[in-house]
What we know:
By secondary structure, the chain is mainly α. It has 2 domains: 3-53; 62-196, no CATH class. Helices cover 84% and strands 0% of the residues. The chain is flat, with a radius of gyration of 28 Å. The mean pLDDT is 75.
Amino acid sequence: xxxxxxxxxxxxSLSQLGANQYSLQLKKFWGRFLRxxxxxxxxxxxxxxxxxxxxxxxxxxxxxxxLINHRIFRFLICGVISAAFNIILLVxxxxxxxxxxxxxxxxxxxxxxxxxxxxxxxxxxIWVWSRHSWTLCRIFKKEIPLYHFSCGASIATxxxxxxxxxxxxxxxxxxxxxxxxxxxxxxxxVISDQVVFREN
Length: 200
């Protein structure tokens, strides 16, 4: 008899048992439950969780699997990781070196962007546009230069127009950088999918 069926029997017997009898019955049930876990181990726990898991969770799991297999979703996840990397690096550069002047903060932003571009290329290449066969020659001679080219417009906009403008408006540099990241994301995806990582 499964644990869930035993639990339902205990619950149904509430109306027929007194408080003391119910307490004794409950102790017996949990005692049997713990003994079965200790003796049966992982199998008992897995079966119990499978039976007791709400039905809507199983549907959500299949949806999550479909999302993970979707390229745009993986691109967004990698984009969030790259954005976090960019912000953390920018904070480290500005706070560690105590950069108070706008020109130095802008230089720090440019350095953070370049390092983040290389970081994002690596994770996009591994997870979003992964291939069974690839060569280092193709990566260094074609994909990295093209990826830099695809990011060039957004980098130039963020470094020489958007960041200085928002910094002059005294907008926090983390929010400033997030705005720039959001503006370049759509364009980066289209160019990366159609040009940089496109199969020959």
